[in-house]
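INFO batch 0412 | record 1 of 1 | parsing
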Amino acid sequence: MTVSFISTTEAAFLLNLSTGRLRRLMNQNRVPGAIKYKGRWQVPVNDRGMPEIEEGSRGPKGTWNKFQRKAKTIVHVLRKTIDYNRDNETSYPAVAVKVGDKKDYCHALKIYGSCLIVYQPHQPNRSQAGGARLWIEVEPENRVERIYFSDGDYGPPPEVVQQRAKSKKQKAKDEKLR
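INFO prediction complete | emitting tokens
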């Protein structure tokens, strides 16, 4: 039987934890089978495709996901980020991966299993910023591996940061009017 390994970022996404918290758990030897290879953690997955974490001896029980997600994975290519990267010679992640209400950004994506590419020019997907008209849907049972460039820029793309700032200003403005 071969053991499958995933990256820390992907494991944290599946478990609904921050990568820092997951690294802390691995340093405490609470992720069985996790190994450090060439300076990077590799996290094993069980037969359900999920990393396992051992319970701690103190404090409240962990709240991480123990089963695979039920929601579809929605993948968007961020056209504005591609334009921004071209114009400013940066390499921000231009692929947005959304599972349920959690969103992650990456440079490349490997989809294990079938997927559906959807183009709806008159019914944009409002779950993404700006309402995407073209996206990829992946069923929950199919694994999606996120890939990051080692020399890439990390964090949300500039368009997302700008939209969050605009949304924050609007909320503050609305609260002042109340």
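INFO post-check: The CA atoms of residues 3 and 113 lie 19 Å apart.
INFO record closed
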